[in-house]
Amino acid sequence: MRFRLTPRETSFYDMFAASADNIVTGSKLLMELLGADSAARAEISERMRAAEHAGDDATHAIFHQLNSSFITPFDREDIYSLASSLDDIMDFMEEAVDLVVLYQVEELPKGVEQQIEVLARAAELTAEAMPNLRTMTNLTEYWIEVNRLENQADQIHRKLLAHLFNGKYDAIEVLKLKQIVDVLEEAADAFEHVANTVETIAVKES
If you write DSSP's letter for every residue of 26-41 in order, what string do you get? Predict the structure, then answer.
């Protein structure tokens, strides 16, 4: 660990942890969506929207702290990148739920539950990892596993696309469902961006 002669602003750690915990909330709402009817989905969408707003607030708080802090725990661009990537995850999850409701999707294609399970696992790992930024310990397994999960998400996404284009669905339904599964894939990519940023920070601080 690099030796420092100056004190560091430590509230960033708590804010990153809070942002990651909020993502876990979002992933649980995605899980709820799977078995919900149309009325329940509308209510889940409202709760997801509230969680997304809470995520925005957390991100803005980090940016405000960044702009007002002379000393930061690690490089400013990495703080910005980490906060932005965490925010992207919530944005994509909220978008997916909103699209399901707006498009009035009656039944999600088989395989979407696997996408969401991967996102839920990545959310748990990310929430567990954020407090470890304080000490930069026990992080290697985190970013390795999240990268593995993203590869798994890619495979699930490709199988879903093949399923959507097998002729079972009409063209309009394919367009709707493809947009939903694509947004879920973007959420998986965003988890990988977070893990890659954490790896970059850890390497710089070692």
Answer: HHHHHHHHHT--HHHH
Nearest one of 96, 124, 91, 102 to 32, comparing CA atoms: 96
Cα–Cα distance for residue pair 201/206, rounded to 1 Å: 9
Say which residues have a Cβ less than 8 Å from residue 145's Cβ, sequence separation at least 6.
Answer: 125
CA distance 67 to 165: 48
Element (H, E) at 172: helix 171-205
Residue with tokens 């601080």: 205
Q: Does 12-205 carry CATH code 1.20.58.220? A: yes
Q: DSSP assignment, residue 135? A: T
For residue 71, what are its two tokens? 């000393």
Instruction: Measure the CA angle with vertex 142, ends 136 and 147; round to 5°.
Output: 130
pLDDT one-digit tens code per residue, 54-93? 999 999 999 999 999 888 998 999 999 999 999 999 999 9
pTM above 0.85, yes or no: yes
From the list 122, 123, 108, the residue with the least C-alpha distance to 176 is: 108
Take residue 189 and report the two structure tokens written for it. 């990519």
CB 115 within 8 A of CB 153: yes
C-alpha to C-alpha distance for 16 and 18, rounded to whole angstroms: 5
